[in-house]
Every structure is written in structure tokens, then in C-alpha cells.
Fold these 2 entries.
Entry 1:
Amino acid sequence: MTTSTTTEVIGILGGMGPAATADFYAKLVATTPGSSDQDHLRTVIWSDPTIPDRTEALLGDGPDPTPWLLDGSRVLREAGATVIAIPCNTAHAFVPRIADHVGLPIVHMIGEVARHLTTVSPPIHTAGLLASSGTVRAGLYQEWLDRYGIRLVLPDAASQDREVMTAIHAVKSGTRDGTTTALLTRAAQRLTEQGAQAVIAGCTEIPLGLSADAVDVPLIDPALVLAQALVRRATTESRAG
Amino acid sequence: MTTSTTTEVIGILGGMGPAATADFYAKLVATTPGSSDQDHLRTVIWSDPTIPDRTEALLGDGPDPTPWLLDGSRVLREAGATVIAIPCNTAHAFVPRIADHVGLPIVHMIGEVARHLTTVSPPIHTAGLLASSGTVRAGLYQEWLDRYGIRLVLPDAASQDREVMTAIHAVKSGTRDGTTTALLTRAAQRLTEQGAQAVIAGCTEIPLGLSADAVDVPLIDPALVLAQALVRRATTESRAG
């Protein structure tokens, strides 16, 4: 399996946040098979951290990021991208507003996570979600997991606010200490106590603050699932081409 | 100090290799002051791992990467970049061939390292270099360190070939194990035995395989020095603007 003959150029619409974009690109590189630079996928990344906060927009507290997402997609298309990946869960709430205008396929991170959950053995009937309040409010995982008959459990309002969002803001501000890990570990435990057989780290900042070891059940990293989907797509396209 | 009002858009000409590009962008994000996404610098990254091997070209064994570097620079300029950074030491051998055609300033990583060495206390009179054979052969660090009156010491031919290049290829192929670290640690020791008061990790793969703790003298990471130079430039431009 090699990607070296592919004509695919991965477009990453990033900056939400920038650390998560760097982490996602590192995962894409690590996931790509090959032993030399030349085996890797050509990639263009537009990382615009000035895109208005997605959660604030969804909660009605800030400007709509849609124009920024459209601008970034245009930059990626003009740079030669053949497919777009958005390593930000919350931004997927805006995908329906941009999909018809982008002119390129978008590999949908949340859809890929839902599909991935159906391939895990033993089967997962209940999944827990650690995500931004914007992602939760927009019902993004709810919608996709419903399609596959997987029940979703969420933190209660207090845990969402005081544990999950506090930890996300800490990672975004560059703080990744024991307190952040403890907050996320406690929030994850609350989900497994509700029956979650897997926990979705549904905000790209969360895997930066919570390691898989800290959770009793599989911790699903959507960025990694998205990276794997892109590599699978590129290698399939390569073999077909 | 904030970068949030800057009009600077960082263009990263990357893919040489892709893991080093991901690492460089992570360092740029970590170096940027600020507590929210919106404090970070807009960045566009063109990561083309299919660019022909720079060392092979310099040793006369492979195609000239200059056309690929020019293409990538054009993509970055058209995407809105206002400055270009190239997180690959060896590629700097080709900077004189592209600089006049890029239409954007290039922040020169090797020039920044040489300048940085003059600011370290106590003063550094002799620096050692761990770099690809292409970088060594092209005399890139030699030229810049000469300008500042710093003596450069290099591995002997056997160490360059069997330790440094073996380790660089191991990191490029995704291997970062104890053997790689041991090879680089031994090569660094040989440089300090020759009087090096600092060791330049002069290939972006080397900091991925060698930690600063493993070396008795300061280990200079050119990617970090370049990231700091870009942030300084953006914040200065911001204050002036």
C-alpha cells in the first residue's frame, strides 16, 4: 500500500484551534504508510485562528464563522486541494452551510467517527461524548449516532460547564496540567457510569489534555479517525488510478 | 504583546519532511503568546513531500528540487502569505535560486540560528553541527557562522554517514527508538569532545530523535529559533501597524 502515486491533495481547513491543527497534521503524517518523505500525501493547510469562535456562534453569543470557512475553503481549492478535512468538531455544525459552495468533497469527521464505532469489536451500543457546548447544542454526534442506532450519553449541565469547557479553554490557552487531566478524567468517568462503552473525545483539544490510559473504556479520537479515513481514501484512489 | 492585530500571514514551505513540518507548526503555535485561538497567527502551509530529496540533489544523485520550491512558494503567495519560512535546513541551499522569484521575504532559518548563537550567554565560540550530508556539503552553517566569527565543528566522515544519516533516515521512516537516540547522542558527544559549546540540531528530523537532556551542552533547535523569529517579526509588525 502506497500513497506516492496518488493525485489527491489533502486540504486542511484549520486554525480551530491552531494546536489541534498541528496535532491533526502530525496524526495524518503518522498514519500514512511509507518509509520516505516521498510516500507522504501532498497537503495544504489553511490555519486561520481568527475564525470567530464556533461555540459562541452556536450559543448565539458571537458572529457566524461561515464566511471565514468559505474563504478558507476557497484558498484550499485554489491551492490545488482535491478534498477538504476540517479538524474541528464544532465547525461541522457549519458544514451544511458551506458544503454546496466549496466545490470539493468534505470528509466528514463526525460521520467517520459514527461509522468507525460500528466497526469496533465488541459492538458499541452506548457511546459517551466529551465535546464543546457548541457541538453538544448542535446535536452533531446525536444526529450521526442515531443513524447507526448507537445511544449517546452526555455530561450533565454542571459537568459540561465546569469540567469539559474549563478543560477545553485551558488547552486552548496553552495549559495542559494535572488539573486539566483530572477534570476530563472525572467527566469521562461520569459517562462510563452512565453506561458508555466508549468515550468520544469530541473536541480536538480534548486528546491534548486526556490520555487514553486515563479512561476505562476505549477513547475515540475523531482526529485520528479522520486521518485514517483520508489515508484510506487516498490509497484507494491511488490503486484505482 | 499580542499578534492578534497583525496582518502577517505566515507561509510555511514544508513537506521536507512532513513530520518536521507538523513539528514546526506545533512549535510556532506554542511560541505564539496569547490565551485564545484568535491570538494566533494566520498560517498557510504547503506541505509537498514529493519534492525531490535535497541531499541527493546536492550530492549530484537526484533531480533539482528548485521547480517544486518555486511552485510551493507561488501557492503560498497566492493563498495570501506575507512571509515565507522553510522548516528544512537542507532546502536552504536552494534559497539563492528561489529568493528573487518568490516575491515575498524569506525568514532564513540558518541566518536566524547564527544570529541566535551570538545572543547566548556565556558566548559561544565553537558550535557543533548535526545535519544532513547535503547541508554539510553545501556549507550552509559554515557560511553563516563565519560571518559571526563562530568556529564550526563537524562529525568525521564515518560518524556523518553511519550515525547522523542513519538516524535521519530512521526518523523519516517513522522509527524513533533507542537506537536512533543512541546514534545521535554519540555523534553529539564527538562534537563536544572537539570543543563544541553548543550543538546545532541542523536537520529538522534531529530534534525528533534527540532530546536536549541527552547532550551536555545546549542543543540548538533551528525550527524553534525560526518560530521565535517569525513571532518576533509578526508582533513587531503588529506594534508598528
Entry 2:
Amino acid sequence: MKVVVNLKAYPCDSVEVATAARDVSEESGVPIAVAPQAAHLERVAETGVETWAQHVSPVEHGSHTGSTLAEAAAEAGATGTMLNHSERRLKLADIDTALAAAERVGLETCICANNPDQIGAVAGLGPDAVAVEPPELIGTGTPVSKADPDIVTDAVAAAEDADDSVAVYCGAGISTGEDLTAAQELGAEGVLLASGVAKADDPKAALEDLVAPL
Amino acid sequence: MKVVVNLKAYPCDSVEVATAARDVSEESGVPIAVAPQAAHLERVAETGVETWAQHVSPVEHGSHTGSTLAEAAAEAGATGTMLNHSERRLKLADIDTALAAAERVGLETCICANNPDQIGAVAGLGPDAVAVEPPELIGTGTPVSKADPDIVTDAVAAAEDADDSVAVYCGAGISTGEDLTAAQELGAEGVLLASGVAKADDPKAALEDLVAPL
Amino acid sequence: MKVVVNLKAYPCDSVEVATAARDVSEESGVPIAVAPQAAHLERVAETGVETWAQHVSPVEHGSHTGSTLAEAAAEAGATGTMLNHSERRLKLADIDTALAAAERVGLETCICANNPDQIGAVAGLGPDAVAVEPPELIGTGTPVSKADPDIVTDAVAAAEDADDSVAVYCGAGISTGEDLTAAQELGAEGVLLASGVAKADDPKAALEDLVAPL
Amino acid sequence: MKVVVNLKAYPCDSVEVATAARDVSEESGVPIAVAPQAAHLERVAETGVETWAQHVSPVEHGSHTGSTLAEAAAEAGATGTMLNHSERRLKLADIDTALAAAERVGLETCICANNPDQIGAVAGLGPDAVAVEPPELIGTGTPVSKADPDIVTDAVAAAEDADDSVAVYCGAGISTGEDLTAAQELGAEGVLLASGVAKADDPKAALEDLVAPL
């Protein structure tokens, strides 16, 4: 199982969460990546944690003011990126181009989508992973694995149909070790989480609890 | 006169340009800011140059994956930001909210617009500066001060009508000291430029040439 | 006072509302326009009511699949259009271009905005009218004239500063004759309303009530 | 083979093209649909031709000013719709929701995409048809079947892998009967075309030439 911690635009201390993630990852052997604001990529990467961008733009070098260039993210230390998060939905053509941009600089990629149909669609584009996150569960604390386990198994089936080398991650409402185990049993190979760690009083304890069952 | 160098998503060495800008600014006394990719804000700020964001998002702390949070830009060292660049046009309501976000963290602000009418519109929102950049001249090497000087004088008049404390900058096609002087004579108090410095073989020499007449 | 009834994407009978508006307008002498879905412009215009588009695109004739071309709206019978409604916010540059498109075919124009600052901004672009609609009041049934009368007077002042030939309309929460009178007393020259008429059991009675005080 | 004529925002007489399409369809037995501006749906449908929307919005009845509600398009006479045309690209989640909107009112659906990968992605969502239109060929007069026949065969294969009940149409550069035959030989079951008919001096002759080989 892989864990990606999305810091969104939360008022958390990105270096504190990154340091906790690095330590828990080293201690547990579970790969944990942290995805901060683009402006914080460098300080997060300096902790030694696996660092992901929250998004990269569907552009190449050129006149693209205000974009998030994959090359710049990689130079700042990112080794992976989410794409099409429900808070940063992209046009289909732009998912395709942003994926190519990420691959151009060797970023690991995880494309998010709402439901099994869309998971099948994006898995066919060939990312490293896809993440199913029903929008209605994001930020609720109710894990998709409990609220609607069929969404996870259907997503796993849809991704496999499209391209069986694509891993399926599970997002929305994940916060405990039990949630993570439930996701794993449904076929997920990773989890995306956010507030459960980023807003925790003690991010390290939250991460330790999360990976304890593994 | 103030100079803002927009590095866009150019394949330039942002630290090299930043260092050149810092040195030329110190030697000449002309304020020169450099606006890199968000992921490069920290390394640019570390050179000591005045550092600007290319854009900040119309959001506060919260669930805004893939945004450019003003707080994060400021923490990375930005002290100013462009808004509504022609390559990153915003909805009017979002210009208003992004301006409030920038002001919330004390960023100096410069809102770009296409023509004098739009300059009047955005000046009324109360930024520190507005920049008139006719889209058809961006990247051409033909300065607006030559191609159509009335645009600059009309923009200055429109901004003054709306709010006479707002400075007017001039963008699009500026690259030489002569261009800068011409802009100044038309009433501009600053210039935005990009490829003329960022793509120059010798960015320092380009900046020295630019500020020489001042 | 002018009344614009926005049918949005409501499940109302657009011809029934249009017929009621036509009749009440003729009986009362108060100008009442109805703004249906683009696909219903023709059937609404055939009733003889003043017909408005809800939006026109910032384009000219050409390769713009899925746009709402001002020419097509006019050919279908529209004589006016809203622009930048809070449910269809536009980039500032696109407000400017869409306004030009509407003027190109002689449509009366009303640009919506959230607050007095934005009202000042769009009034400067020179439309026939602007409409202030605080987003937090839309659909609440609480008229802006009661919830926050200063917004209306400030919007009137801001528009006058920018261009004193631009009329100010008042939207959000207007449904009764009392609301309309209150808006008028604050300086508004028109009202935008939607659910109060479009979702009324008897749209004609709702409109008669609305214009009764005039 | 099915023919869909996209009138975009062209300055053509939509009723003249519709009448020609109706007549040629009746004479030849080839199904020909015409997709006008939303504001022209009603007048086009009144000719008796098969009428398509160029786009429908990913919304249901409600507060969606300026949208193109599927219900309104159907009430105006549309029996089909394009989605995600390269001039009206949608977010993936919105393609999914707009498709559901179109199906809710019984519209035939054709989702456009740039390349075989994206065709596979959208075919998996279950529309009636998908259309491959390489953006670089749109409006060139060079048919994709000549410029790059592999794109068509790869698109047909990708769609079949995803859902073998989905028809593949071929767009971009189609204008003659020869182009249509070439598309058919590569596995396409329909064509999208635009300027070749809409801008023809004699649309009826252009359509007759198009369907002659069938």
C-alpha cells in the first residue's frame, strides 16, 4: 500500500507534516508521499520525504504565465503528481497532455476521478495509478470503503479492464488504519488522504495509526 | 520606474536571472522584481531579489488542491504578484477575490488588462498597479509605446479616472532602455517584460541596457 | 423601472411566463423582459414579449462550436442580454468582448456583478445597465434592498462615478412590489428576478403584484 | 454511414442547410443530422431534418443561467447532441454528467476526442458514438483518413476495446464522397463535417457529392 498525503491549501505546517511522513515511512517501510502547495515543494523535498505536486499544467516550456510547469515541479524536488483532483478538475484533453508533461520529466502519476466509469476512462490513458474519490465523501471522515465499497471494487475492475498495469488508489474519507485495511481488501493499492493527517493535532501519530495494520 | 521580469514557463535558469536582477537593481537603484514559477519562488527569493508570484488563486486556506495560495507564495518569499496576466485571465469576480487574497498577506499587486477600458475597470478595484498589455503585441518585440502609444496614454487616463493612486505599468514588447524611456514619457511608472530578459543570452547585460537611461 | 425575468434552467413553461409578462407589461406600462434558455428564445419571442438572452459568447462568426453567438440570439428574437451572471461568470476580457458582440447586433446589455467595486469596474465598459447581485442572497427570497441597502446605494454611486449614463439594476431576492419600490428608492432603475416569478404557481399574479406600486 | 453537419457559429443560413440536408437524406437514404446554434434549434427542427445540439451542459433543471439545458434542447426539437467538441472541451467529470443529461431526455450522443487514447476513454462512458478529430486537421480540408489513417483505425480499435457497441465517427477535414468512403473503409460508421457543407456555395450539391458513393 502507498499513502499520498494531500496538504491542499490547509493552514498546516508543511515541513512538520513532511518530516512526520518521512519518519513514519522509514520506520514502517510503507511508502508515504506528501503533496504540498507548489510554492512549498522545495521545502518539503528538503526533508527527504517523497514529494508530490498537487497538479501540473498541460503545457511545455513557453509562454504560460501562472502555470505549474512539470519541469519546475521536478526541479523543486517533486517525484510524483496528482492530476484531475476533484478540486482541480481538468478537461479530458488536458488530462492527457498534463499526463504527458508529467511523464516527460519522470513524475509518478495518479489521476483522480469520481466514479468507476471515469476511472476506466482515465486508466486507459496509462498513468501509474488512478484514485477513485466520490466527491460527496471528500472531507466527510466517512471512508468510501464503508460508505460504498462497491465503488472501490468496481473501480478496480474498471481500471483492470482498461489497463491492468494501473494501480487503483482510494480517496475520500480515509483516516484510520482500519480504513486503509478495508481499502486494501477491496483491491486498492494505495490511499489518498488529506485532512485526517494534515489537520491532525499530531500528524505523526495519525500516520502511525494509519500504517499500523500493514 | 519599476521593472517586473516575468519568467513565465521559460526554460531559463531562474536563479541566474534573479541574481542578475538583484545585482542590476542594487547597482542602478531601479527596483527590479522577478516572477518565477511558483515552484521556484523559494530559490529565487533566496538570491535576495524582489520576488513576485505570477498569479495567486482567489481562495483562502482550505480545500483547494492545485491552487496557488497567497499565503504559501508569501511564505516562499514572494512580496508581490501579478494577477490576470493575458496568459492567465481570470473571471472578474475572481480578480476581486484574488486581489483580496494578495492584500491579506501584504503582497504588492499588479493587475494586467488588454486595453484602456479594462484598465479603468481593474484600477477601480484598488490594486497597487495595473499593467496594460495588448495581447497582439506580447512576445513580438514591438513595444506598445511604439506600436500604439495612445493605448498607454489612454490607459494612464483611465486608471487615473478610476483611482489616481494606482500606478500604470506597460507590458508587451518592451526590451530596451529606449522602450522603457518611451513608456515613461507616456506616463507609465513601470514595465513588465519577459522574453527580452528571460531568453537573453546575457540577462544581466539585457537588464543593464534596459535601465541605463534611468 | 424595468423588470428582467431570468428563467435560468428552471422547469417552468417559458411560453406561459412570457405570455404573462407580455400581458402585465402591456397593462401596466412597465417594461418587462423575459430571459429564457437560448433554445427557447424563438418561442418566447413569438409571444411578443421583450426577449433577452441569458448570456452571449465573446465571439464573432466562426469556428465556435457550442457558443451562444450574439447574431443567432438576435435572429431568434432577442433584443437584450445579460452578461456575467453569477451563475455564468466571465473573464474580464471576455466581458469586454461579449459586450462588443452584443452591441454589434444591437442587443440591450446588462452586466451583472457581485458588489459595488465590481459594479464600478463593469460600468466603465459602457453597457446599458449593470446589475448588482450579492451571490449570498440569490435565491434566498431576502431582497438586497432589505438585507444590505448600502450595497445598492454604493453600487449606484460606483456606476455613476464610472459612467453616469449606465443604469443600475438590482437583483437577488427581489419578489414583491415592496422589494421593487425599495430598490427604486435606493436609486435602482430596474430589477432582475427569477424564482419569484418563474417558480410562482401563477406567474401573472406574481408579476401584477410586483409592478402594482409603480 | 451517418453524417452530422456542424454549423458552428458560421454565418450560414441554418434553415437553407437544414432543408438541403433533409432533402439529400430523404433522396439518398443516408441519415444526415444538422447541428445549429442552440438559438436556431427550433427553426432547424421545423424543416424536418434530424436536429442535433452542438453541446449540452452538465446540469439538471435549476439555477444554471446561461447553460444549455438538455431538456430545453430536446423541447426545441433536438434528438441528438455532440459533446466535448474540440472547440468546446469539457472536464472529464462534466462529459460524464452531460452525457447523463443527454440520455435523460433521450438524445443520441456523440462524444468528440483528439486521439485514440482519449477515444478509448470516452467510449468507456457509454455514448452512442465517439468522434475522433485530430485538432491539427480541423478546418484544413485535409481529411484525417488521408493525413493519418492510423488514427482512425486505432480509434476504432480503442473504442471497441472499451465498449464494442459504440460507433466511431470521423471528423476533421472531411468534405467529399471520397473522404467519406475512405473513413468507412477504415472502420468509421459516421462522419462529422462543418465548413465543407456549411460554407459551400451550394450546400445541397456538397451533400449530394458527399453521399454519392454510398
